[in-house]
Amino acid sequence: MIHLKVTNLQKRFGGNHVLKGVNFEINGPELIGLIGPNGAGKTTMTNILDGAIKPTSGTVYLGEKRIDQLQPFEVARAGLGRTFQVTRSFRRMTVLENLYVPALAMGNTHGQAELRDKAMGVLEFLTIDHLRNEYAQALSGGQQKLLELGRLLMLNPDVIILDEPFAGVHPRLMEVIYAYIQRVNDEGKAIIIISHQMDSIFSLSQRLLVLNFGDLIADGPPEDVKNDPAVIEAYLGAEEGEEAPA
Ligand SMILES: Nc1ncnc2c1ncn2[C@@H]1O[C@H](COP(=O)(O)OP(=O)(O)O)[C@@H](O)[C@H]1O
Ligand SMILES: [Mg+2]
Question: Distance, CA 166 to ligand 1 centroid (Å)?
Fold first, then answer.
């Protein structure tokens, strides 16, 4: 059973108090949306959860294991993976090679043929198998996002965090990403989706977290959160008639 527990998580960058004591738990294969204004601390929290940076205080447990002091590869091995708001791939490797890297880095125990089969299955699902021998740098922005989702699938994590997976993505590829999220969730994984695209977030999420400048101001079913006066004031209302922040 998946159990992620975040307790009193704080982060300061100098005088900037970016996370002010965040608490939440994930129990089982929940599909969670994380929203909040630009600069609220969503990416910073993701960076702490995946081990890229250390919290100023507080703890993160994945199951029985404390993960907030681990390195990213150790966190990945423990079962938590994420994608990046700005995609990261090995630009001078092919698409297929990009998928091998995480598996090999984690100490792939399978044979070469099995690894290739798995990678090809992932690429087919993401509709980019025809690009397998292209260099990653030749891919469009949306295809790069799919590649990153593919790299995550190769690791088979229990908990995945997608940081702005829909930003700048063509509608057709968005459908692929939707299907990806549903499939990965159906396979029993917990997912946190960070997005400003309210339509996507409200249609996908079973539960919504709202981060407002370091404080978690709401945590509950999307319908409740949508009508929460504090949320409307802090975030939803403020955006009326404006373009969603990047
Ligand atoms: N590495 C860093 N060093 C200093 N300040 C940072 C760093 N990363 C993020 N911040 C600051 O933390 C705040 C939250 O940023 P971020 O987590 O990226 O917000 P969000 O993803 O919700 O838009 C911002 O004020 C940002 O400038
Ligand atoms: Mg961000």
Answer: 20
Q: Where are the domains of the chain?
A: 3-239
Topology annotation, domain 3-239: Rossmann fold (3.40.50)
pLDDT per residue as tens digits for the range 9-41: 999 999 999 999 999 999 999 999 999 999 999
pLDDT for 85 beyond 80: no
For ligand 1, the distance from its centroid to the CA atom of residue 108, given in whole angstroms, is 34
Tell me how far the alpha carbon of residue 213 lies from the centroid of ligand 2, in angstroms: 12
Ligand 1 interacting residues, C-beta cut-off 6 A: 13, 16, 18, 36, 38-44
Q: Give the integer Cα–Cα distance in Å for 77 and 24.
A: 22
Tell me what the mean pLDDT of segment 201-214 comes to: 95
DSSP track, 107-157:
---S-HHHHHHHHHHHHHHTT-GGGTTSBGGGS-HHHHHHHHHHHHHHH--
Q: Is the pLDDT of residue 206 over 60?
A: yes
The pick from 10, 12, 18, 164 for probing ligand 1's pocket by mutation, whose C-beta has the most ligand atoms within 8 angstroms, reads 18
Binning pLDDT at 50, 70 and 90, where does residue 105 land? confident
> Among all ligands shown, which has an atom nearest to the Cα of 83?
2
Atom 2 of ligand 1, nearest CA residue: 13
Return d(Cα 153, Cα 169) in angstroms, integer: 19
| Amino acid in the structure at residue 14 | G
pLDDT at 187: 92
Answer with the residue of higher pLDDT: 109 or 44.
44
